[in-house]
Amino acid sequence: MRAQAKELIELIFNSISHQTNSSMAMLSIINTVFLPLTFLAGVFGTNFESVTAYKWPQGFWWFWGLCAIVTGAFMVLLRCWGMFRR
């Protein structure tokens, strides 16, 4: 009886660990996608006129286009690496 109780407790802990690992994997994927976008926002958000695209007439749209391209590229890479399979 004691051995069965111990095995049931281990089963419960293993189930909790599996769920935690699944959550952490999803958070890692989300972080991988948003980390380059954070870098781009930091570069284009600086207050130095020589660094950013302040003088471009379409700089705002170029920034969002670049963000869309980077996000799409990372999604394709993650799919190729098999990160979206369960």
UniProtKB/TrEMBL annotation:
<dbReference type="GO" id="GO:0015095">
    <property type="term" value="F:magnesium ion transmembrane transporter activity"/>
</dbReference>
<keyword id="KW-0812">Transmembrane</keyword>
<dbReference type="GO" id="GO:0050897">
    <property type="term" value="F:cobalt ion binding"/>
</dbReference>
<dbReference type="GO" id="GO:0015087">
    <property type="term" value="F:cobalt ion transmembrane transporter activity"/>
</dbReference>
<keyword id="KW-1133">Transmembrane helix</keyword>
<protein>
    <submittedName>
        <fullName>Magnesium and cobalt transport protein</fullName>
    </submittedName>
</protein>
<dbReference type="GO" id="GO:0005886">
    <property type="term" value="C:plasma membrane"/>
</dbReference>
<dbReference type="InterPro" id="IPR045863">
    <property type="entry name" value="CorA_TM1_TM2"/>
</dbReference>
<feature type="transmembrane region" description="Helical">
    <location>
        <begin position="61"/>
        <end position="81"/>
    </location>
</feature>
<keyword id="KW-0472">Membrane</keyword>
<dbReference type="InterPro" id="IPR002523">
    <property type="entry name" value="MgTranspt_CorA/ZnTranspt_ZntB"/>
</dbReference>
<feature type="transmembrane region" description="Helical">
    <location>
        <begin position="21"/>
        <end position="41"/>
    </location>
</feature>
<dbReference type="GO" id="GO:0000287">
    <property type="term" value="F:magnesium ion binding"/>
</dbReference>
<dbReference type="Pfam" id="PF01544">
    <property type="entry name" value="CorA"/>
</dbReference>
